[in-house]
Amino acid sequence: MRMSNESNPTSFVSGNTIPGGQSATVLATLLLAAVAVCSAQTERPALVPSQQGGSSAGAAALQSSQLGSIGGLTDEPISPGETVHIIVFDAPDFSLVTRVSESGDVAYPLVGAVHIAGLNSAAAEALIAGQLKERDLMPNPQVLVTVDSASTGITVLGEVRSPGIYPPPGKHLLSDLLAAAGGLNASAGRVIEITSDHAPDKTIDIPWDPTMHNTSNYDRVVFPGDRVLVRGCGIAYVGGKVLKPGAYSLCGSPQLTLSEMIAIAGGIAPMASQSKTFLVRAQPDGTKVVQQIDVHKVLSSKSADPVVREDDIIYVSPSPLKVAASQAMLFAFGITNALIYAYHP
Hints:
single chain; alpha+beta; wza like fold; Outer membrane lipoprotein wza fold like; 3 domains; 5-stranded mixed sheet; 7 helices
């Protein structure tokens, strides 16, 4: 006997006949499975290119895009506080971005603390690769270690328009860094001091002249972690038998000589002893060196004109003979006036 679909409804799914009562359940199950598959495809991390038939260069590009900026290789020792990128090719679980601790260590997965402070990129790569191979975590690990230079800026202080911490420019040139800081102030001196986190006890003093664009000083390379201090103008002191004794700035010229400083102080007074002018200069150990100079020979080009440095003292001594002669003349004038006043013919 023939039965209609109304009395015995059936559904056809994938070529199989399923009773109508179970049709809704099967359809709901299939829909849930489809949603789960789509969700898994969306959330599943992309495979590294080697698993998809790609090259190692593609793997590095993919991993770098996942980690963001990968910094740059460095030949300088890695310092505590710097951000390092450790990339293990074809092993994203061992790739990470971390900051070096104050003790110089980084926490590495399945290895523990690895001390990389004081190492450059190549040495840190060899150390981490050795740790992975020694623990049988990878047979032949390919490791790349870079330093994020943007996280370790260069500090610019002193006589600049905008002091602060700056990310190193592309070429790491001193001139570019000073330009980024707005340039030098009018009160800037002629010496720039550079110190580094890698050698905090070492100070480099650079004589600076921005008009000499092709000098090695102008294009000197600076590194992340360096501190650049632009010193202010120095002061030299001129005293003794000059017309205008006082403290004078050294900003007016790249270098000022003793004769120029005496001229700025108004010149030598009449009672001065030109052969007994003294230049007093402080030494780094706190002692002072006194040099006697004959200004007359300097002015007549018979003797070298010394360059005046910051905190130098120039003292022009009075001439005992000239002072005695002057006092004698004053005494004589006084006696003469007294005699003229007392004499009445």
